[in-house]
Amino acid sequence: MAAATFAPPPHHRRCRRHLSHLSPPSSTSLLISKTWFSNRKMAPFSSFWASIEPTKTAHGPLTHCSPSPPSSSSSTSPAEVSTPTAESCVNFGLSLFAKGRVKDALEQFDTALTLDPNTQEAQAALYNKACCHAYREEGKKAADCLRTALREYNLKFATILNDPDLASFRAMPEFKELQEEARLGGEDIGYSFRRDLKLISEVQAPFRGIRKFFYVAFTAAAGISLLFTIPRLLRAFQGGEGAPDLWETSGNAAINLGGIVVLVALFLWDNKKEEEQLAQITRNETLSRLPLRLSTNRIVELVQLRDTARPVILAGNKETVALAMRKAERFRTELVRRGVILVPVVWGEGREPQVERKGFGRSPKAAASLPSIGEEFDKRAQSVVAKSKIKAEIRFRAEVVSPVEWERWIKDQQKSEGITPGEDVYVILRLDGRVRKSGRGMPDWQEIVKEVPPMEAFLSKLER
């Protein structure tokens, strides 16, 4: 499965700063790690996401957008009472959402959109309004807000793909429709996501553009030649003195016409392959940010296992998956040597997405309970034996988080390969995150041990 990389916008997580106080960080990956979201929630901007702080700033205290009576004190200075603005409404709406007052937060974001917001403020208001609708399971309204932000305010689709607050929305059919629209591009949603996908496609197939250029050039040349050949062919049919040879002229016309047909067919075939590749890249990006929970309760995205593990996704009914897991135990030592980590996905489990219902982001208490990426496990291990068992379990098995999203990705992958959605399937990934092998039923572990090289082997280094 191709690892797609291009520059992402930072995202808004816990809105703790003012809209104008953050400079854009640099990054080279489309996929935003969960660690990026661990400490803040930033409002999306057109070229960057500025952070928001619903507290006093250099511009004076922020006020909410609800009308308030003027102060009767003569000592009140203009700096102490600020006029409601789109920026302050966004700030106040975010603080309300953090307290669980979603309806009030929506009113503030709606008000912000009526106060002549600039591009950045409008984008922030629309995006956070979509998060509120996603919280309330209003998929259509959330999609409409995001569609407007994508079309008119340059919202990056990568932000929607990676925001945990939109996990419930990504499990809805409205997200699938929005993603397909963004992949195809158009006036209703903009072309930014499609441009990003095409950049990745060009890296994977660098000569496609050159081929299409020659298809067009040769087709034009054959068309011009055919244009001049048609009058000669008519004269040849009429015969008479000075008429060109009929068979020779007919042969030239046939060659030109055949060339045009072949070149147009090749051009259309290349276009079809490009669309299939863009669809695969979209699925790959969706897969790479799906979350996993390791046995130590550490939550990571699949992309964070690149270069260190080969995930094997087992999807099917409970009995089939359980049987495959038991068979894998017989080859556990060899599979661990090859970096295999089992990811069981049972059809029908977790129909309702697990969503935190207390505002943007994970609560501090919940966040504190989760080990951070790269955290040492010495405190968890009471002995060398216990520590080795923990490490082996981390590399051998993981639990899916948000099973609905996992099921949706697997079923999309099944459709692309002509497999009936819902069948028992397995997907083996390479170290670089690309699909190595997939098929119906459950895998033959003995065959996998023979085919997949150990982590220290030279062939494994080539996969990274």
UniProtKB/TrEMBL annotation:
Alphabetized Gene3D superfamilies for the sequence: Tetratricopeptide repeat domain
Pfam name, any one: DUF3493
GO biological process: photosystem II oxygen evolving complex assembly
Region Disordered, annotated ranges: 1-27, 59-80
Record field: compositional bias (Low complexity): 71-80
Keywords tagged on the record: Membrane, TPR repeat, Transmembrane, Transmembrane helix
Basic residues: bias regions: 10-20
SMART domains xref list: TPR
TPR repeat segments: 86-119
An annotated GO cellular component: chloroplast
Transmembrane segments: 213-233, 253-269
Alphabetized PROSITE patterns for the sequence: TPR
Protein name per its UniProtKB record: Protein LOW PSII ACCUMULATION 1, chloroplastic
Native organism: Buddleja alternifolia
